[in-house]
Design a protein that fits this description.
With 419 residues, this protein is an alpha+beta fold. It has three domains: 82 residues, Double Stranded RNA Binding Domain (2-Layer Sandwich), CATH 3.30.160.390; 92 residues, DNA polymerase, domain 1 (Orthogonal Bundle), CATH 1.10.150; 184 residues, Intergrase catalytic core (hpI Integrase, Chain A). The protein is built from 16 helices and seven strands. A hairpin with a 4-residue loop joins strand 6 and strand 7. The longest helix is centred in the N-terminal third of the chain and has 23 residues. The radius of gyration is 33 Å and the shape is elongated. The C terminus is likely disordered.
């Protein structure tokens, strides 16, 4: 350390001038005497080729000995490549966060920066119907992750912590649920990365840690003789009109269940007979040609829900501000007597894919386009979303007419594919 120049008597007797006055003590430490008589300890240092100044306290509350002790700590940080100004800011932020979290705990709220806090923030922004108690993603986190990791700061969570939670799910004999829980946890971590809470998604370290889930397709009916009574049961459903309308539209458009539930009036063009929206799974625009039967369903429900955002709103938000629950349609199928091994809402996609191809003999690429699957040309380029749109309009109308024929007991075309 350079020669120390100051003594207590000099500090006590220092008088202010008309402008700032510096009393140097060596090694960048000095007392700054302000024109108003206040005396501040300062430390000038250089880090990453930048000249900076750090405040070390006010004299006489911080005496000469204390100032030199603080100087020693700050110099050591600089020598280690750590900016003492940044360290001080981090300490202040941590203190503020700790005080805020104490208040939140007292109020029964989640702790800032905890896994549960960030997961709930992610859910509110990314998941339609997150506030619904029946939301599947929310239920999985609440049952499988929150009890053990919910209050833990997300930056402190390790891959083994997550795996321990998944092992509990696996022990219940639900390996598919364990995989789904891991997937949702990964989405939360990726959101945390995007918002600057963590540096990376640690769930990728768990690839291969779980036994493979048994491959299982969504239950569906692909024989026309089975589909006919299902369609008639939907028409006879005596539950909610909104749920009934969604079930009636489902086989006509055969989109993914989440896309059907989240259908918005703003995306429907009744005049053009088209529904255009973003497929969340692939982040691509999709066009669903609407048959006259689909248009009729939409016209009939519009007086009820047309003033809201969603065509099929949650029963708890009749103003249409929130989409229908992900279990509403499935529960309706169960009430009609169709077991989960027989039919799911997603199963309407398999119904359409199979019958359009093997019974009605439409071109497979038309069908794949309408299912919003990735379809490429011989050169590997993705087709435009408007590809074959006139033909797809004809296909969707033919499909709707065919379903009407099934409902009224028309002759079923033999189940075979014509080359």
């Amino acid at each position: 350390m350079a020669k120390e120049l100051l003594v207590d008597v000099t500090l006590r007797n220092a008088k202010p001038d008309s402008k700032d006055k510096r009393l140097n003590d060596g090694d960048g430490l000095y007392l700054l005497v302000k024109p108003n008589g206040s005396k501040w300890w300062r430390f000038d240092y250089t880090i990453e080729r930048k000249r900076k100044t750090l405040s070390l306290g006010v004299y006489p509350d911080t005496g000469l000995k204390q100032a030199r002790e603080k100087l020693g700590i700050a110099k050591q940080q600089v020598a280690n490549g750590v900016d003492p100004s940044d360290t001080r800011k981090q300490i202040k932020v941590a203190q503020i966060l700790a005080a805020e979290n104490e208040s939140r705990i007292d109020a029964g709220s989640t702790v800032l920066g905890s896994f549960q806090h960030i997961a709930e923030e992610w859910g509110q922004k990314k998941i339609d119907g997150w506030d619904d108690n029946n939301n599947r993603s929310k239920r999985m986190l609440e049952r499988n992750i929150f009890p053990w990791l919910g209050c833990k700061p997300i930056v402190d969570i390790k891959p083994m912590d997550i795996l321990s939670c998944l092992r509990r799910v696996e022990a219940r004999g639900t390996i598919e649920t364990a995989h789904r829980t891991l997937q949702i946890t990964g989405q939360v971590f990726r959101y945390a990365v995007a918002t600057g809470r963590v540096e990376r998604d640690i769930t990728t370290d768990l690839r291969g840690a779980l036994p493979p889930a048994k491959g299982k397709n969504f239950a569906s009916m692909t024989d026309p003789k089975q589909v006919a009574p299902l369609l008639r049961a939907i028409d006879d459903y005596n539950g909610s009109f909104v749920v009934k309308s969604a079930l009636q539209l489902a086989p006509l458009v055969f989109v993914r269940p989440g896309e059907l539930r989240a259908a918005e009036w703003g995306h429907i063009d009744l005049e053009a007979k088209e529904w255009r929206y973003l497929v969340t799974k692939t982040q691509t625009q999709h066009i669903v040609p609407l048959s006259k039967q689909a248009i009729e369903i939409l016209i009939n429900i519009k007086p009820l829900t047309g003033n809201g955002r969603y065509i099929f709103p949650s029963a708890r938000t009749p103003n249409g501000s929130r989409a229908m629950s992900d279990v509403a349609l499935l529960a309706a199928l169960r009430r009609m007597g169709f077991d989960k091994t027989e039919m799911t809402v997603h199963g309407f996609r398999a119904v359409a894919r199979t019958i359009l191809d093997e019974v009605l003999n439409f071109r497979p690429d038309f069908i794949e386009h309408q299912l919003a699957h990735a379809v490429r040309d011989p050169n590997g380029r993705a087709y435009n979303r408007t590809a074959h749109l006139p033909e797809r309009h004809k296909m969707m109308q033919s499909w709707a007419d065919y379903l009407d024929g099934l409902k009224v007991g028309a002759i079923v075309i033999p189940f075979r594919k014509i080359s």
